[in-house]
Automatic annotation (TrEMBL):
MF terms (GO), sorted A to Z: hydrolase activity, acting on acid halide bonds, in C-halide compounds
Annotated NCBIfam families: HAD-SF-IA-v2 (TIGR01493), HAD_type_II (TIGR01428)
Name this polypeptide is given: Haloacid dehalogenase
Source taxon at top rank: Bacteria
Keyword Hydrolase (UniProt): yes
Lineage start: Bacteria, Pseudomonadati, Pseudomonadota, Alphaproteobacteria, Acetobacterales
CDD domains reported for this sequence: HAD_L2-DEX
Amino acid sequence: MEQVRALVFDVFGTVVDWREGVARDAAPFLERHGRADIDPRAFADAWRRRYQPAMEECRSGRRPFTRLDILHRENLEAVLRDHGLDPAAIAEAELDELNRAWHRLDPWPDTVAGLTRLKARYIIAPLSNGNVALLLNMAKRAGLPWDAILGAEVAQAYKPRPEAYLRTADILGLRPEQVALVAAHNGDLKAARGCGLRTCFVARPREHGPGQTTDLAPSEAWDVVATDFVDLAAKLRC
């Protein structure tokens, strides 16, 4: 890690708690539309399950690159239909507002303190599948002290496509080995390592709720393994 100059971060699940944030905004929406019987966390999970398949349409070339806000909105309408709600009967402004739940996610308790310490030594930026407006709004609300707002929209590629990692390093004017990805997802780290980036695993054992069974521990010997961002800062002597 001695030559690393920048830390880039997976965001959904690693930096912020997407499940609780989406559920918080979904609960009153569902109640207003007569579906208080739907568990808002299960609704968030169902919305999230459509995330990877939607991006795969772009990764595969079957669809041109499309920003995540648009994919999220399409997925929201599909999830509403799955739950017996007709999105055509709901005001566009209300659908847009719920879609922006992804802009209002809360950071994990250690996130801001850890990022602030890491920023003192490293360039810090998101390497997320989120689009710029989403990541910018999230950062302003949550106080995330990024040096730059990067993401799939900047790289024009969704992880784990190699372009997502390599173009991010290039945009920062750095070689891949001068950049380390921080993520709570082993698959993301594996793809980054395959592109020459350094790797930092931070466990987020409640990303998917109390019954989470994936990414509870590192699957490989990553360059750094930490319990949270504060621990990561300490291990990187920040």
